[in-house]
Amino acid sequence: MFRLFLPLVILLMAMLWCPVAGATEISDREIESIELFELPAVDEQEIRLADERRAINGRVPHYAVSLKVEINPWKDDLGDWQMLRGAVARWRLRLRSPGASSLNLTFGQYRMPPGGRLYLTSTDGSVVMGPFTASDNEEHGELWTPPMLTDDLILELFLPEAELDDLELELSQVQHGYAGFGDPEPKSGACHRDIVCSEAKVWSDQARSVALISVAGTRFCTGFLVNNTALDGRPYFLTASHCGVTTHNAASVVVMWNHERNECGAEEGDGKGDGPREAGAPAIYRDNFQTGAIFRASHRPSDMVLLELDDLPDPDFGVFYSGWDRSSVDPAGSAVIHHPNTDVKRISFDFDRATTTSHLSDAPQPGGNHLRIGQWEIGSTEGGSSGAPLFNRQKRVVGLLHGGYAACAAPRADWFGRLSAAWEGRGRLGFRLSDWLDPLATGVDSLDGVDGSQLKDRLLNASE
Fold this sequence. Notes:
- The protein is mainly beta.
- The chain has helices at about 5-15, 30-35, 45-55, 205, 420-425, 435, 455-464, and strands spanning about 5, 35-40, 65-70, 80-85, 90-95, 100-110, 115-120, 130, 145, 150-160, 170-175, 195, 210-215, 220-225, 235-240, 255, 290, 295-300, 305-310, 320, 325, 335-340, 345-350, 355, 370-375, 390, 395-405, 415-420, 445, 450.
């Protein structure tokens, strides 16, 4: 598991661990002495044109552009090596992408020896990400990081001298953020309702299953943990197929939990959304993130992808595994929990009965693969909400957001891929949800959600 720590906290923990184990406070003078790798300028006009093309084609929005690099501690003498006390080697390199609102990194090769520690530190000292350790080694051999709100950071690697030959580490991409994360402008519409507001509090369990995700380091969506009939705590995670997660890039999925405000940002009962943006301090996922997933199943007609996260969510994250209803009953009322445009977690309500249709169709269609929400009475959805779970009044997932025309300024329809449509998929493994969400072949139509803490023993068994 990965953590974000205040520099002082990480320094104190490092001192307790061993003589040299963690990121150290770096003075301005030291920063200037560290070798700088500056990335090429980004063509802002080309970025905006690409965004417009994606919007026209109905593709998910991007928040960053990927810049290819080939950086490792052994290449072309990049970075600074120093031998520290205790036979520990330290390597540092400064990365800067001028004008970026955020930076996130792709290590195309990542295999950390047992004693190794890798940290990412913003040069202003506001945040330290790490340590990334041997516990982050995965079969796919990659490591993707969440966005850091900076355009200037330092890579700092600590490694016992005896393990130098065992290190496999190459930075292959740097993602230059230009929207969403770190954007000083309001990210989402003013009509959205914070998940911590009064009428939303009864959905607090379900909200803990929902997370903001980054895919391929450049685009963002919403997704959620889902329960299965074995009640074994396997971290199955659903999102939308059009978010672009495939068998080839599932390792790039970064899940950011608890990205939400601590207090309601709206005046109670005013019906006007979340009010001033500064109201209610946001948690901004802090140390609550994990990276990497395994592709399990996909059903494109209903726009669903099922993943299994590489690691179990840290118990400190307080996650919930949502329940589901795969019956063909149209919900009499609905709620969706989502992250609009990388913003904090929100909830929207429809008090009317949904109808079964095909995608983007207004005509009822018995046996259709989508649920149509005619209009949200509270809140809305927008870019980034894709993949969000649609709950019925029994607080079970019945579908996930495919797309539509809803926006704060336009109370129009949204369509959700039906869970029932993806249940049997195309009748074979890799296309149906039933193999994973009903591994015991019980045939049940519905399953309640469960708190991750109640699965403690099963979670431990699943990790062995």
